[in-house]
Amino acid sequence: xxxxxxxxxxxxxxxxxxxxxxxxxxxxxxxxxxxxxxxxxxxxxxxxxxxxxxxxxxxxxxxxxxxxxxxxxxxxxxxxxxxxxxxxxxxxxxxxxxxxxxxxxxxxxxxxxxxxxxxxxxxxxxxxxxxxxxxxxxxxxxxxxxxxxxxxxxxxxxxxxxxxxxxxxxxxxxxxxxxxxxxxxxxxxxxxxxxxxxxxxxxxxxxxxxxxxxxxxxxxxxxxxxxxxxxxxxxxxxxxxxxxxxxxxxxxxxxxxxxxxxxxxxxxxxxxxxxxxxxxxxxxxxxxxxxxxxxxxxxxxxxxxxxxxxxxxxxxxxxxxxxxxxxxxxxxxxxxxxxxxxxxxxxxxxxxxxxxxxxxxxxxxxxxxxxxxxxxxxxxxxxxxx
Length: 386
Known about the structure:
By secondary structure, the protein is an alpha+beta fold. Helices cover 24% and strands 21% of the residues.
């Protein structure tokens, strides 16, 4: 069943277990109010489709999809629709890495080059680091906390696509997909297994993430979402052929919510390991998250003690610690944030480059979360003046 609201096709709920959910301040919001809020914002923000999962008491209490997955065929987004996880992939990978650390297969503080059979610059992807011995200081902890000194991606850094270390490893926060890929090389070397195999074995199957993979699979063809740019033009699905720990995961909103639930509850990790993952490794003073190498600073997030843990962003509020992660790619905008003490969380996945414009309103209305560092994350509201 589907209907139209202000020109947006809205899929009916495929799964929802409660009539209302509790918010941070103790108030509740009904299913009807949630639906009205999401459908109104999708239309106003020109967002093609959205999947929503709300966690309460450490469980997925509310799971629905809205809008469409294929405008050309007028197909509604469903809870089985495979979407690009974008950088949500990083926290799924971190869950695997923490298991390996817990089991002693990987020491978070051992320089990663020591795990490799040849010097790092002898690998083609890292030949640019020859002559810079600082690569010998980089550890898995630095790579997960984005303090390695590597850029987000070498082709964004303006150095002719050469890879460089831009500051002393461990000195400060600078988000780095390159760093996550270096850790992928380390993990695959240590385990002698492919990332695709490891994630299936240790993450997706144990957590029941049945429509999730690190690469595109034929079985996804029955129900997948296209990504759409700011003008509503289809970019198609991301049919990734190689596993990338930074961004290649294909998943559904319900499957990713299972991972978030596992992190919230510490499933598959010892208590100390989970606490380490969600403990601040570095305080963040940068004005914005991107461009990652900018040295502009601010004190505007001191009040929430904005920090980074191991692959998760962190901040503190009167409701306790929150851990969060964004996912950003062309045609895909995703966000999740959870409050530990209250065992509450939310997952938002959209197949639209306009998705970030509705985050602030969604978080404030559905969660009563007024603390999101939206300026740092550059989540410009859809109705912000130009």
